[in-house]
Amino acid sequence: MNKYILLFLLALVTLSCRTIRDNGVYQTTKKEGYYHYVRFYKDSVVLTVSSSGEPHHLKKWFNKEKEDISKGTFTIKNDSIFFKSSSENGIVVYKGRIKRNKMKLYSKSKINGHTSTREYHFERFK
Q1: Alpha-carbon 75 to chain mean position
Q2: Residue 14, phi then psi, degrees to nearest 5
Q3: CATH number for the domain whose boundaries are 2-124
Q4: 14-56 per-position pLDDT tens digit
Q5: Distance between CA atoms of 113 and 90, rounded to whole angstroms?
Q6: Which of 90, 122, 124, 125, CA to CA, is 20 to 30 A from 26?
Q7: Which run of H or of E encompasses 8?
Q8: What Cα–Cα distance (Å) separates residue 107 from each residue in 16, 36, 74, 84, 112?
Q9: pLDDT value of position 12
Q10: SS3 state at 2
Q11: Nearest alpha carbon to residue 103 among 27, 48, 31
């Protein structure tokens, strides 16, 4: 019986490491005066934005109800995540690896061809 409990707990820990958090934002380190942010929702909606503001500044306006923001839907398979984020300017394609509080994303802009790889860490909204 103890063996089954241990396996169950191990499965929970493994799954929680691959879970996207939705009570805040994933943020890069600041480069050239800007952070890059990604926000996820339980219904598979994803938002992306670049901003000079800190996470608590974004809380009021960085949400899926805002019309003029880059958004899309995400899919997760094992520890990989895929999504496209669309705005009035065009589409950026993202793919990467997730852990509970960290994420590494490769992106390619269909707008201008720019590619990048960025590491994100989770910041909970306060």
Answers
A1: 11
A2: -60, -45
A3: 2.40.128
A4: 343 457 899 999 999 999 999 999 999 999 999 999 999 999 9
A5: 11
A6: 90
A7: helix 2-17
A8: 25, 12, 14, 9, 12
A9: 39
A10: helix
A11: 27
For the record, the structure tokens of 101 come out as 């509080």
pLDDT at 10 over 90: no
Compute CA distances 100 → 8, 31, 66, whole Å: 18, 23, 26
Question: Hey, what are 50's tokens?
Answer: 């670049």
Instruction: Round to whole Å and give the CA distance between 12 and 39.
Output: 23
Is residue 83 over pLDDT 80? yes
Q: Amino acid identity of 55?
A: P
C-alpha closest to that of 65 among 39, 37, 89, 90: 39
Indicate yes or no: pTM above 0.90: no
